[in-house]
Write a structure and sequence with these properties.
single chain, 128 residues, mainly beta, six-stranded antiparallel β-sheet, flat
């Protein structure tokens, strides 16, 4: 599994402006990306972009089959489903939280700080 967070200017005011159609400004959004795979193949990713210029959060979900071909994609803005196509295979027809896939909030705070130090500064800078 993977859990990644990023603060960057990704969107303007709505889902249709995220990424490629964004006009850069000084109001960064917060992106959280979670993904899980079974045997390095079948998988599900969930991303949420919020804050910054967005008037409501944007959520994207994507699933893959054994050949890592997309089988499902959805985009929601706030409570409104904008796009949905395909289906996720078991067990990924459920949200990652419902499947018990850990998130960053589940990692021990001290261990997370150590991993952040190594990622930011390199192994030699983090002797503790």
């Amino acid at each position: 599994f993977l859990n990644w967070e990023l603060e960057a200017d990704l969107c303007d005011t709505g889902a249709e402006t995220c990424f490629e159609k964004n006009t850069p400004d000084a109001n960064p959004e917060f992106l959280e990306l979670r993904a899980a795979f079974v045997n390095k193949r079948v998988g599900r990713a969930e991303a949420t972009v919020s804050g910054g210029d967005l008037t409501s959060s944007v959520r994207v979900v994507e699933c893959w089959d054994e050949a890592i071909d997309r089988t499902y994609a959805s985009v929601s803005e706030g409570d409104q489903l904008l796009i949905e196509e395909g289906a996720c295979a078991a067990p990924f027809e459920q949200d990652l939280a419902d499947l018990g896939v850990p998130g960053l909030q589940d990692v021990d705070a001290e261990m997370l700080a150590k991993m952040d130090c190594v990622a930011t500064n390199g192994v030699g800078a983090c002797d503790d």
